[in-house]
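2 proteins. here.
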Amino acid sequence: MKTLIIGGARSGKSAQAEALAAASGKRVIYIATAEAGDAEMKARIAHHRERRNAGWTTIEEPIALAAAIESHRAANVVVLVDCLTLWLSNLLFSEKTAYPEMGPIVPPALVAEQCEALVSVLQKTDSDLILVTNEVGLGIVPQSAIARWFEDEAGRLNQAVAAACDRVVLTIAGLPLTVKG
């Protein structure tokens, strides 16, 4: 079963994903995509680590997500990925490009390559996967070009991943609402 858990910041989506993984009764491989680029992100990562089951195997993979999923999937394993939007951000800034406040955004080729690879892995695998992502399109249209690009691309990525998943769960205020499956 492939499950996408989507929600806003601090909606409870990671806790929902972790509970689902724990309830599977399978060995859990936790693929963390976050990179600790500053003190705030270090604190967020530490919070997630503290909550995570100590018996789980954690793989830190900020870029080659499809390859990490492919190499760790197995019949007796559930792979939990947290989170796709952080991963997309890693891809966007992988070349350390300073993007303009206004005007066209030209992302690294790595963005399309890695997103296509992820969707391909999801479409062909029948392994148990739980993927966490942020819903970023429920607010106003951002003013800056890079924020608009990110909102659009995250929405496209979420749609492609949702189409490849058996189940999609929207998490709001800690409450899961199944919208597919």
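next one coming up
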Amino acid sequence: MQANPVQIIAPQTITDTLTGYYTSPAKKRTLISKLTFPNASPTAESVSVHLVPSGGTADASNKVISDRTVNNGEAAAIYQLEGQVMEPGDSLHFASDTTGSVIVVVASGVEIY
């Protein structure tokens, strides 16, 4: 077994449309080390997070964070996902509550194969 620490999601702004931002590669499992949502907006915004099993779609059954408020200037660490193992094809989906959101996502982890 080999483990490779990686940045699984490079910093990027999330949208108000539920979108997949990371899929665990084929033949690899991914251990989530850190998932953070910095907010550079002058106002608070919220974010929702789905951990979707391979072949599934983001819906209420896999929503793991619902409308987490991220205050202006805060970098919200999502501790609930740290240490979670994603199987090949599992994916992370996010959405903010604001059109023109300035919430950013950045994540690191370990790909195991």
